[in-house]
Fold this protein.
Amino acid sequence: MLEADNLACLRGERAIFAGLSFTLGLGEAVLLVGANGAGKSSLLRLLAGLLTPAEGRLLWDGEDALADRAGHAARLRYLSHQDSLKLALTARENLAFFARLWGGTPEAALAELGLAPLAELPARILSSGQKRRLALARLALAPAALWLLDEPTVGLDAASVARLGTLLARHRAAGGMVLAATHLPLPLPGARELRL
Amino acid sequence: MSAWRALLGRELRLALRHPADSLAAVMFFVLVAALFPFGIGPAPEALARLAPGALLASALLAALLPLDRLFGADAEDGTLDQLLLSGIGPAAVALAKAAAHWLTTGLPLLLATPIAAAMLNLAPGAWPAAMAALGLATGFLSLLGVAGAALTLGARRGGVLLPLLVLPLAIPAVIFGAAGIEAAAAGLPARPYLLLLGALLAGALPLAPLAAGAALRVE
């Protein structure tokens, strides 16, 4: 279980949010909503351990999650606003590196997002929606307890959103947790809203 | 370890997809070395006297060229976040970056050394010592450079700041490297100087990646 206790985040001298507390149990999903600049992306980076909270604690099963950042990183997948792709590498090569890290096979993950026919194409020539799907394919490689998704459906067509819905449902059925920042409707039935 | 090798392999594969970067560094090295005969005049003795220092300076400047994109590209496309979460560890990521930088920049420079040495009228007997000195000195610079690149990441005008930060620290490598080549050209053993260069490299091998890793964490 992930538990945020009185979290605060500073960027420069400005407090983006403070006194933020919530809990996320097995199989649960939380939608982060709020205006631009409300701190949705900062919260996701903070939960991933990429930012240090100015105040408050982040607990995983009752223990300080950020005490062992490598251990915390191993149980999460972070999908940032950028796609984290290398444009000179093919779709398969982009995934192959992460498959070496986490396990799983690039082919299966590509098929999951409907990218199998594009496997050997360099990421450079993919459309922005296809690049987003390739970034999402990282989620399909191997299971992780916590998914932190920053605007996962930007640029996706309806069929791809449905594929993401399948991934999310399977992840949650296996006890996985999801925290997603979004302005668009996401296929996350029963998700709670957290307004920043 | 397997993840580290995968990262190094990916870096090398990316460099192979953009061979122009390595080629540009080699061309820069050869061209800078070619400028000296024009400036000093074609007197062979004067050139040979200058060759060791000119070789070292040209090689280090050429090796600096690709450094500012070392972490910059990864920071822009979001890859850096994934690397920091990969469990490889920030210092090990920095070491992989330094190794890839040396293999794609330092090593090609080494292969071009005879061309530059010939243009500078360095005695052929000193070429092996020159290649050894440049190999060690560029390795040292790759390690310093990875720390400099991590520190200047996100800084405005980081590309200008980086050489100002790294080049002064590379002065010992220029001194020992040039002295080694000069000794070899005079028929004396270059070994003591090369060993000192090796000591510099051995010192930087653990320290520079640790510094770079700490800088990446702070971003």
Notes: The CA atoms of residues 113 and 137 of chain A lie 6 Å apart. Chain A has a mean pLDDT of 92.
